[in-house]
Predict the 3D structure of the following.
Amino acid sequence: MPRRAKELSAIEVKRLASGVHPVGGVPGLYLQVTEGGGRSWLLRTPIGGKRREIGLGSYPEVSLKEARLSASENKAKIRQGINPIEERKQLRKFLLDQEKQSILFRDAFEQYVPIKQSELAEGSYRKNWRNSVDEYAMAVLGAKSTSEIATDHIVEVLLPIWSEKRATADKLRRKLRSTLDFCAAKGYREGDNPAEWTGKLSKLLPKTADGSDEQHFPAVQLQDVQRCWQAIQSRSGVSKLALSFQFLTATRTGAVRFMTWDEVDFDNMVWTVQPLRQSSKVTRKMGPRRVPLTEAMKDILDRSPRHAGSKYVFVAPRGGALSDASIAEVLKKTHDADLRNGNRGFFDAQTGEVAVPHGFRSSMKDWASERTSYEWNLSEAALWHYLGSKVEQAYARSDVIEKRRKMMADWNNFVRGVEV
Protein backbone atom coordinates (compact mmCIF):
# COMPACT_ATOMS: atom_id res chain seq x y z
CA MET A 1 0.00 0.00 0.00
CA PRO A 2 1.43 3.46 -0.95
CA ARG A 3 2.54 5.63 1.89
CA ARG A 4 -0.02 8.29 2.82
CA ALA A 5 1.26 11.86 2.89
CA LYS A 6 1.05 13.80 6.10
CA GLU A 7 -1.98 16.05 6.19
CA LEU A 8 -0.50 19.55 6.42
CA SER A 9 -2.20 22.50 8.07
CA ALA A 10 -2.76 25.86 6.40
CA ILE A 11 0.18 27.35 8.35
CA GLU A 12 2.49 24.51 7.31
CA VAL A 13 1.48 24.90 3.65
CA LYS A 14 2.19 28.63 3.82
CA ARG A 15 5.75 27.93 5.07
CA LEU A 16 6.72 25.43 2.33
CA ALA A 17 9.90 26.26 0.39
CA SER A 18 10.53 25.75 -3.33
CA GLY A 19 9.74 22.29 -4.70
CA VAL A 20 6.70 20.04 -5.19
CA HIS A 21 5.16 19.04 -1.88
CA PRO A 22 2.38 16.55 -1.03
CA VAL A 23 -0.07 18.23 1.35
CA GLY A 24 -2.18 15.19 2.32
CA GLY A 25 -5.92 15.00 2.81
CA VAL A 26 -6.43 13.75 -0.78
CA PRO A 27 -3.94 11.31 -2.38
CA GLY A 28 -1.99 12.97 -5.19
CA LEU A 29 -2.61 16.59 -4.11
CA TYR A 30 0.55 18.73 -4.25
CA LEU A 31 1.58 22.34 -3.87
CA GLN A 32 4.17 23.41 -6.43
CA VAL A 33 6.45 26.25 -5.28
CA THR A 34 8.82 27.84 -7.84
CA GLU A 35 12.19 29.49 -7.11
CA GLY A 36 10.55 32.84 -7.75
CA GLY A 37 7.90 32.18 -5.13
CA GLY A 38 5.00 31.24 -7.40
CA ARG A 39 2.63 28.69 -5.86
CA SER A 40 0.02 26.48 -7.55
CA TRP A 41 -1.97 23.31 -6.83
CA LEU A 42 -1.46 20.05 -8.73
CA LEU A 43 -3.41 16.82 -8.65
CA ARG A 44 -1.39 13.84 -9.86
CA THR A 45 -3.65 10.91 -10.61
CA PRO A 46 -4.06 8.11 -13.17
CA ILE A 47 -6.60 8.69 -15.98
CA GLY A 48 -7.22 5.87 -18.43
CA GLY A 49 -4.11 4.02 -17.28
CA LYS A 50 -1.80 7.04 -17.60
CA ARG A 51 -0.56 9.31 -14.87
CA ARG A 52 -1.76 12.86 -15.50
CA GLU A 53 -1.43 16.24 -13.81
CA ILE A 54 -4.43 18.49 -13.31
CA GLY A 55 -3.91 22.12 -12.35
CA LEU A 56 -6.28 23.29 -9.60
CA GLY A 57 -5.36 26.96 -9.49
CA SER A 58 -2.86 29.20 -7.75
CA TYR A 59 -2.25 29.60 -4.02
CA PRO A 60 -3.43 31.50 -1.98
CA GLU A 61 -6.27 32.46 -4.40
CA VAL A 62 -7.36 28.84 -4.00
CA SER A 63 -7.08 27.91 -0.32
CA LEU A 64 -5.93 24.58 1.05
CA LYS A 65 -9.50 23.65 1.90
CA GLU A 66 -10.72 24.56 -1.59
CA ALA A 67 -7.84 22.64 -3.22
CA ARG A 68 -8.71 19.46 -1.25
CA LEU A 69 -12.39 19.82 -2.20
CA SER A 70 -11.52 20.33 -5.90
CA ALA A 71 -9.14 17.34 -5.85
CA SER A 72 -11.85 15.13 -4.34
CA GLU A 73 -14.37 16.25 -6.96
CA ASN A 74 -11.96 15.51 -9.80
CA LYS A 75 -11.22 12.05 -8.46
CA ALA A 76 -14.94 11.37 -8.17
CA LYS A 77 -15.38 12.31 -11.84
CA ILE A 78 -12.56 9.96 -12.85
CA ARG A 79 -14.25 7.09 -11.00
CA GLN A 80 -17.40 7.88 -13.03
CA GLY A 81 -15.43 7.62 -16.29
CA ILE A 82 -15.17 11.37 -16.86
CA ASN A 83 -11.82 12.85 -17.90
CA PRO A 84 -11.58 16.21 -16.06
CA ILE A 85 -8.85 17.45 -18.41
CA GLU A 86 -10.96 16.88 -21.54
CA GLU A 87 -14.01 18.26 -19.76
CA ARG A 88 -12.10 21.44 -18.99
CA LYS A 89 -10.91 21.74 -22.61
CA GLN A 90 -14.48 21.45 -23.85
CA LEU A 91 -15.66 24.08 -21.37
CA ARG A 92 -12.85 26.43 -22.38
CA LYS A 93 -13.70 25.96 -26.06
CA PHE A 94 -17.37 26.59 -25.35
CA LEU A 95 -16.59 29.82 -23.51
CA LEU A 96 -14.26 30.98 -26.29
CA ASP A 97 -16.91 30.19 -28.91
CA GLN A 98 -19.49 32.09 -26.87
CA GLU A 99 -17.14 35.05 -26.64
CA LYS A 100 -16.45 34.95 -30.37
CA GLN A 101 -20.10 34.72 -31.32
CA SER A 102 -20.95 37.68 -29.14
CA ILE A 103 -18.86 40.03 -31.30
CA LEU A 104 -20.97 42.85 -32.72
CA PHE A 105 -21.42 43.25 -36.46
CA ARG A 106 -19.89 46.72 -36.44
CA ASP A 107 -16.72 45.39 -34.78
CA ALA A 108 -16.47 42.43 -37.16
CA PHE A 109 -17.01 44.78 -40.11
CA GLU A 110 -14.12 46.96 -38.95
CA GLN A 111 -11.93 43.86 -39.01
CA TYR A 112 -13.07 42.91 -42.50
CA VAL A 113 -12.86 46.31 -44.23
CA PRO A 114 -9.04 46.53 -44.49
CA ILE A 115 -8.90 42.93 -45.72
CA LYS A 116 -11.46 43.64 -48.46
CA GLN A 117 -9.95 46.99 -49.40
CA SER A 118 -6.55 45.36 -49.89
CA GLU A 119 -8.12 43.31 -52.71
CA LEU A 120 -9.31 46.44 -54.52
CA ALA A 121 -7.35 48.75 -56.77
CA GLU A 122 -6.27 52.11 -55.39
CA GLY A 123 -8.79 54.87 -55.91
CA SER A 124 -12.22 56.06 -54.92
CA TYR A 125 -13.86 52.62 -55.11
CA ARG A 126 -11.46 51.23 -52.50
CA LYS A 127 -11.89 54.33 -50.34
CA ASN A 128 -15.68 54.35 -50.58
CA TRP A 129 -16.32 50.58 -50.56
CA ARG A 130 -17.74 50.64 -47.04
CA ASN A 131 -20.02 53.66 -47.49
CA SER A 132 -23.25 51.85 -48.40
CA VAL A 133 -22.86 49.49 -45.42
CA ASP A 134 -22.39 52.44 -43.09
CA GLU A 135 -25.30 54.34 -44.62
CA TYR A 136 -27.94 51.64 -45.00
CA ALA A 137 -26.98 48.63 -42.86
CA MET A 138 -25.25 49.79 -39.71
CA ALA A 139 -28.39 51.23 -38.05
CA VAL A 140 -30.04 47.79 -38.26
CA LEU A 141 -27.08 45.42 -37.90
CA GLY A 142 -24.35 47.38 -36.11
CA ALA A 143 -25.32 46.61 -32.51
CA LYS A 144 -26.32 42.99 -33.19
CA SER A 145 -23.95 40.11 -32.54
CA THR A 146 -22.93 38.48 -35.79
CA SER A 147 -24.28 35.13 -34.59
CA GLU A 148 -27.85 36.45 -34.26
CA ILE A 149 -28.11 38.11 -37.70
CA ALA A 150 -30.81 36.34 -39.70
CA THR A 151 -32.57 36.70 -43.04
CA ASP A 152 -35.22 39.00 -41.56
CA HIS A 153 -32.52 41.48 -40.56
CA ILE A 154 -31.05 41.48 -44.09
CA VAL A 155 -34.52 42.08 -45.54
CA GLU A 156 -35.01 44.97 -43.10
CA VAL A 157 -31.82 46.55 -44.46
CA LEU A 158 -32.48 45.99 -48.16
CA LEU A 159 -36.23 46.40 -48.59
CA PRO A 160 -36.33 50.22 -48.24
CA ILE A 161 -33.95 50.67 -51.20
CA TRP A 162 -34.66 47.47 -53.16
CA SER A 163 -36.96 49.05 -55.74
CA GLU A 164 -35.69 52.63 -55.96
CA LYS A 165 -31.97 51.89 -55.76
CA ARG A 166 -31.74 48.33 -57.03
CA ALA A 167 -28.10 48.44 -58.15
CA THR A 168 -27.03 49.91 -54.80
CA ALA A 169 -29.13 47.36 -52.91
CA ASP A 170 -27.67 44.42 -54.82
CA LYS A 171 -24.12 45.63 -54.25
CA LEU A 172 -24.93 46.15 -50.58
CA ARG A 173 -26.28 42.60 -50.33
CA ARG A 174 -23.05 41.26 -51.79
CA LYS A 175 -21.00 43.27 -49.29
CA LEU A 176 -23.08 41.92 -46.41
CA ARG A 177 -22.71 38.40 -47.77
CA SER A 178 -18.92 38.64 -47.97
CA THR A 179 -18.74 40.22 -44.51
CA LEU A 180 -20.80 37.43 -42.99
CA ASP A 181 -18.70 34.83 -44.84
CA PHE A 182 -15.68 36.42 -43.16
CA CYS A 183 -17.45 36.16 -39.79
CA ALA A 184 -18.12 32.46 -40.36
CA ALA A 185 -14.46 31.87 -41.25
CA LYS A 186 -13.41 33.62 -38.04
CA GLY A 187 -15.79 31.49 -35.98
CA TYR A 188 -18.06 34.44 -35.13
CA ARG A 189 -21.15 32.73 -36.51
CA GLU A 190 -22.39 29.37 -37.77
CA GLY A 191 -24.96 28.18 -40.28
CA ASP A 192 -26.11 29.52 -43.64
CA ASN A 193 -25.33 33.03 -44.79
CA PRO A 194 -28.57 35.07 -44.55
CA ALA A 195 -27.38 37.48 -47.25
CA GLU A 196 -27.04 34.68 -49.83
CA TRP A 197 -29.59 35.31 -52.56
CA THR A 198 -30.23 31.63 -53.32
CA GLY A 199 -31.44 31.04 -49.77
CA LYS A 200 -34.55 32.49 -48.15
CA LEU A 201 -33.74 35.99 -49.37
CA SER A 202 -34.91 35.31 -52.93
CA LYS A 203 -38.35 34.42 -51.58
CA LEU A 204 -38.69 37.55 -49.45
CA LEU A 205 -37.49 40.30 -51.81
CA PRO A 206 -39.08 41.23 -55.16
CA LYS A 207 -37.31 39.98 -58.25
CA THR A 208 -36.31 42.23 -61.13
CA ALA A 209 -38.74 43.22 -63.82
CA ASP A 210 -37.77 40.25 -66.00
CA GLY A 211 -38.37 37.80 -63.15
CA SER A 212 -34.71 36.86 -62.75
CA ASP A 213 -32.80 36.67 -59.51
CA GLU A 214 -29.86 38.82 -60.55
CA GLN A 215 -29.57 42.42 -61.66
CA HIS A 216 -30.35 42.75 -65.37
CA PHE A 217 -28.67 45.42 -67.48
CA PRO A 218 -30.83 46.48 -70.42
CA ALA A 219 -29.31 45.09 -73.62
CA VAL A 220 -29.58 45.83 -77.33
CA GLN A 221 -31.67 43.15 -79.02
CA LEU A 222 -29.86 40.98 -81.56
CA GLN A 223 -32.08 42.24 -84.37
CA ASP A 224 -30.98 45.79 -83.54
CA VAL A 225 -27.27 45.21 -82.95
CA GLN A 226 -26.06 46.16 -86.42
CA ARG A 227 -28.35 49.19 -86.64
CA CYS A 228 -27.13 50.32 -83.22
CA TRP A 229 -23.50 49.93 -84.29
CA GLN A 230 -24.01 51.99 -87.42
CA ALA A 231 -25.82 54.70 -85.46
CA ILE A 232 -22.96 54.90 -82.96
CA GLN A 233 -20.44 55.24 -85.79
CA SER A 234 -22.24 58.36 -87.03
CA ARG A 235 -21.26 60.13 -83.83
CA SER A 236 -17.84 61.59 -82.98
CA GLY A 237 -15.47 61.99 -80.07
CA VAL A 238 -13.34 59.82 -77.79
CA SER A 239 -16.38 58.60 -75.81
CA LYS A 240 -17.80 57.19 -79.04
CA LEU A 241 -14.52 55.31 -79.65
CA ALA A 242 -14.58 53.92 -76.10
CA LEU A 243 -18.21 52.81 -76.48
CA SER A 244 -17.39 51.16 -79.81
CA PHE A 245 -14.44 49.34 -78.27
CA GLN A 246 -16.64 48.15 -75.40
CA PHE A 247 -19.25 46.96 -77.92
CA LEU A 248 -16.69 44.82 -79.77
CA THR A 249 -14.87 43.46 -76.69
CA ALA A 250 -18.02 42.84 -74.57
CA THR A 251 -16.08 44.03 -71.51
CA ARG A 252 -17.21 46.22 -68.63
CA THR A 253 -17.23 50.00 -68.91
CA GLY A 254 -14.71 50.36 -66.08
CA ALA A 255 -12.25 48.05 -67.81
CA VAL A 256 -12.39 50.24 -70.94
CA ARG A 257 -12.41 53.62 -69.17
CA PHE A 258 -9.18 52.95 -67.29
CA MET A 259 -7.47 50.98 -70.06
CA THR A 260 -3.82 52.05 -70.46
CA TRP A 261 -1.47 51.78 -73.40
CA ASP A 262 0.96 49.56 -71.51
CA GLU A 263 -1.79 46.93 -71.23
CA VAL A 264 -1.86 46.52 -75.01
CA ASP A 265 0.48 44.11 -76.80
CA PHE A 266 0.12 44.98 -80.48
CA ASP A 267 2.69 42.37 -81.55
CA ASN A 268 0.61 39.52 -80.14
CA MET A 269 -2.72 41.35 -80.46
CA VAL A 270 -3.66 40.95 -76.78
CA TRP A 271 -5.04 43.35 -74.19
CA THR A 272 -4.17 42.23 -70.63
CA VAL A 273 -5.83 43.56 -67.47
CA GLN A 274 -3.96 42.79 -64.27
CA PRO A 275 -5.70 41.93 -60.96
CA LEU A 276 -6.87 44.91 -58.89
CA ARG A 277 -6.50 47.34 -61.76
CA GLN A 278 -8.85 50.26 -61.14
CA SER A 279 -12.52 49.58 -61.96
CA SER A 280 -11.66 46.31 -63.70
CA LYS A 281 -13.32 44.00 -61.12
CA VAL A 282 -10.42 41.61 -61.73
CA THR A 283 -9.47 40.05 -58.38
CA ARG A 284 -6.27 38.35 -57.31
CA LYS A 285 -8.12 35.04 -57.36
CA MET A 286 -9.08 35.56 -61.01
CA GLY A 287 -5.55 36.35 -62.14
CA PRO A 288 -4.78 38.47 -65.23
CA ARG A 289 -7.59 38.69 -67.79
CA ARG A 290 -6.71 38.75 -71.47
CA VAL A 291 -8.76 39.96 -74.42
CA PRO A 292 -7.77 38.83 -77.92
CA LEU A 293 -7.66 41.88 -80.17
CA THR A 294 -9.24 41.71 -83.62
CA GLU A 295 -8.43 43.96 -86.55
CA ALA A 296 -11.65 45.89 -85.91
CA MET A 297 -10.62 46.50 -82.28
CA LYS A 298 -7.11 47.54 -83.37
CA ASP A 299 -8.58 50.01 -85.82
CA ILE A 300 -10.38 51.76 -82.96
CA LEU A 301 -7.19 51.87 -80.89
CA ASP A 302 -5.27 53.29 -83.84
CA ARG A 303 -7.86 56.08 -84.14
CA SER A 304 -7.80 56.94 -80.44
CA PRO A 305 -5.69 60.09 -79.99
CA ARG A 306 -2.70 59.88 -77.67
CA HIS A 307 -2.16 62.67 -75.15
CA ALA A 308 1.26 63.58 -73.79
CA GLY A 309 1.41 62.86 -70.07
CA SER A 310 -1.65 60.59 -70.06
CA LYS A 311 -1.44 56.82 -69.83
CA TYR A 312 -5.07 56.20 -70.79
CA VAL A 313 -6.16 54.87 -74.16
CA PHE A 314 -9.43 56.81 -74.12
CA VAL A 315 -8.62 60.21 -72.64
CA ALA A 316 -11.00 62.82 -71.26
CA PRO A 317 -10.45 66.46 -72.32
CA ARG A 318 -8.40 67.19 -69.18
CA GLY A 319 -6.16 64.18 -69.63
CA GLY A 320 -7.76 61.79 -67.16
CA ALA A 321 -9.95 58.74 -67.69
CA LEU A 322 -13.38 59.12 -69.25
CA SER A 323 -16.34 59.14 -66.89
CA ASP A 324 -18.89 56.37 -66.87
CA ALA A 325 -21.58 58.91 -67.68
CA SER A 326 -19.79 60.22 -70.80
CA ILE A 327 -19.76 56.75 -72.39
CA ALA A 328 -23.35 56.00 -71.37
CA GLU A 329 -24.44 59.36 -72.78
CA VAL A 330 -23.24 58.37 -76.27
CA LEU A 331 -25.59 55.36 -76.30
CA LYS A 332 -28.44 57.42 -74.81
CA LYS A 333 -28.06 60.11 -77.50
CA THR A 334 -27.83 57.40 -80.18
CA HIS A 335 -31.12 55.96 -78.92
CA ASP A 336 -32.82 59.38 -78.83
CA ALA A 337 -31.63 60.19 -82.36
CA ASP A 338 -32.93 56.85 -83.62
CA LEU A 339 -36.37 57.65 -82.23
CA ARG A 340 -36.34 61.11 -83.83
CA ASN A 341 -35.57 59.45 -87.16
CA GLY A 342 -38.76 57.44 -86.85
CA ASN A 343 -37.13 54.18 -85.80
CA ARG A 344 -37.87 52.09 -82.72
CA GLY A 345 -34.77 53.01 -80.69
CA PHE A 346 -32.75 50.50 -78.69
CA PHE A 347 -34.82 48.92 -75.92
CA ASP A 348 -34.26 45.77 -73.91
CA ALA A 349 -36.63 43.04 -75.11
CA GLN A 350 -37.62 41.87 -71.64
CA THR A 351 -37.71 45.00 -69.50
CA GLY A 352 -38.54 47.64 -72.10
CA GLU A 353 -35.76 49.83 -70.67
CA VAL A 354 -33.31 51.77 -72.82
CA ALA A 355 -30.16 49.73 -73.46
CA VAL A 356 -26.98 50.62 -71.54
CA PRO A 357 -23.31 49.90 -72.43
CA HIS A 358 -23.02 47.03 -69.94
CA GLY A 359 -25.87 45.35 -71.80
CA PHE A 360 -23.55 44.74 -74.78
CA ARG A 361 -22.25 41.79 -72.76
CA SER A 362 -25.72 40.24 -72.73
CA SER A 363 -26.06 40.90 -76.44
CA MET A 364 -22.82 39.05 -77.13
CA LYS A 365 -23.89 36.14 -74.92
CA ASP A 366 -27.25 35.93 -76.71
CA TRP A 367 -25.47 35.97 -80.08
CA ALA A 368 -23.06 33.18 -79.03
CA SER A 369 -25.92 31.06 -77.67
CA GLU A 370 -28.50 31.62 -80.40
CA ARG A 371 -26.56 32.31 -83.60
CA THR A 372 -23.40 30.20 -83.26
CA SER A 373 -22.19 26.73 -82.29
CA TYR A 374 -19.37 27.97 -80.08
CA GLU A 375 -18.94 26.13 -76.80
CA TRP A 376 -20.57 27.70 -73.76
CA ASN A 377 -17.25 28.11 -71.94
CA LEU A 378 -15.80 30.33 -74.69
CA SER A 379 -18.41 33.06 -74.30
CA GLU A 380 -18.19 32.72 -70.49
CA ALA A 381 -14.41 33.19 -70.67
CA ALA A 382 -14.90 36.22 -72.92
CA LEU A 383 -17.12 37.74 -70.21
CA TRP A 384 -14.47 36.98 -67.53
CA HIS A 385 -16.86 34.67 -65.68
CA TYR A 386 -15.70 31.79 -63.47
CA LEU A 387 -15.94 28.47 -65.29
CA GLY A 388 -17.27 25.34 -63.57
CA SER A 389 -16.85 24.25 -59.97
CA LYS A 390 -13.96 25.33 -57.72
CA VAL A 391 -12.22 22.04 -58.48
CA GLU A 392 -12.59 22.59 -62.22
CA GLN A 393 -11.33 26.16 -61.85
CA ALA A 394 -8.24 24.90 -60.02
CA TYR A 395 -7.26 22.65 -62.94
CA ALA A 396 -8.57 24.62 -65.93
CA ARG A 397 -5.86 27.29 -66.03
CA SER A 398 -6.07 28.10 -69.76
CA ASP A 399 -8.12 31.11 -70.85
CA VAL A 400 -8.57 29.55 -74.35
CA ILE A 401 -7.53 32.86 -75.89
CA GLU A 402 -6.88 31.60 -79.42
CA LYS A 403 -10.28 29.92 -79.61
CA ARG A 404 -11.81 33.12 -78.28
CA ARG A 405 -9.96 35.16 -80.87
CA LYS A 406 -11.90 33.44 -83.67
CA MET A 407 -15.18 33.82 -81.77
CA MET A 408 -14.60 37.53 -81.10
CA ALA A 409 -13.70 38.11 -84.75
CA ASP A 410 -17.03 36.53 -85.71
CA TRP A 411 -18.83 38.66 -83.11
CA ASN A 412 -17.16 41.78 -84.51
CA ASN A 413 -18.22 40.84 -88.02
CA PHE A 414 -21.79 40.29 -86.84
CA VAL A 415 -21.88 43.65 -85.03
CA ARG A 416 -20.54 45.52 -88.08
CA GLY A 417 -22.67 43.59 -90.55
CA VAL A 418 -19.64 42.19 -92.36
CA GLU A 419 -20.31 39.16 -94.50
CA VAL A 420 -17.57 36.50 -94.35
Summary: The CA atoms of residues 76 and 82 lie 9 Å apart.
